[in-house]
Amino acid sequence: QLQLVESGGGLVQPGGSLRLSCAASGFTSNSYVIGWFRQAPGKEREGVSCISKSGGSTKYADSVKGRFTISRDNAANTVYMQMNSMKPEDTAVYYCAAASSTSSWYNCDYSGMNYWGKGTMVTVSS
């Protein structure tokens, strides 16, 4: 059974950092594109970052470019997202998702994802 489990969320002050992890089980992670998405209260779910199956290509939302970094360790079946210089507007539930389509990393759109984790809450507040 395919499963994605997020961890690493929590409360952080503005300017601080967090690292989210997405552990995959039931499949070999390098056979799927992995993406991070977030949804704030009252807002639509948005793509934050996506990484190709090999890890050689990445895509970021403009709002997080230069602050967030996505990476993957296929041997560990885990994808990470390092979040630095965090802002209150980064507050949201963060989800990781997997897509079987090789090119889906480029659009990084939630409609292209096949499997979802349950999410982890990130709160940026002083």
Distance between the termini: 40 Å
Kindly provide the radius of gyration, computed on alpha-carbon positions and rounded to a whole number of angstroms.
13 Å
Mean pLDDT: 94
Helix content: under 10%
Biggest sheet character: 7 strands, mixed
* Number of strand segments: 11
Beta-strand content estimate: over 45%
Shape: globular
Counting DSSP H or I runs of 4 or more residues, the number of helices is 1
Please provide a brief summary of the model.
The protein is mainly beta and 126 residues long. The protein is built from one helix and eleven strands, in the order βββββββββαββ.
Description:
With 126 residues, the chain is mainly beta. It has 1 helix and 11 strands. The strands form 2 sheets. Strands 2, 4, 5, 6, 9, 10 and 11 form a 7-stranded mixed β-sheet that branches. The model has no long low-confidence stretch (mean pLDDT 94).
